[in-house]
Amino acid sequence: MHSRVRSASALHLPTLADSGYEGAGQGIHTPYKQPADGHRLAVDNRTHNAALRSMRCLGERGFAILTGRWRTLRHTTTSPRSLGDIVRAALHLTHFEYRYLPDSC
After folding, report:
1. CA gap 64, 26 in Å, rounded
2. Where is pLDDT greater, at 37 or 77?
3. Residues 17-76 pLDDT 10s
4. Contact (Cβ atoms closer than 8 angstroms) between residue 22 and residue 30
5. Residues β-bridged to residue 38
6. How far from 74 is each of 37, 78, 80, 84, 101, CA to CA, in Å?
């Protein structure tokens, strides 16, 4: 494994995922599904889902901004190893464009 590239599971970090990843394994946090019998979820499960959505929305919005702004990120055929460098460059340029960078630039 490349020293800079490690998966969240190798680092024992929790991973926030959507309901499509249910049952993906330990450390993958997915929302609780609505019961099939029509009853509402328990308040603690609804709170878990709200917290999960609030944390995931930041990453989803960032990804939407990057792929919307940088057409090359939509259909790339480069290796995953070099894609990280391309995304970092696009993120830096996007921060510059939106003036998120400190004035020292």
Report:
1. 27
2. 37
3. 888 888 877 788 889 998 889 899 999 999 999 999 998 888 888 888 888 888 777 777
4. yes
5. none
6. 40, 12, 14, 14, 24
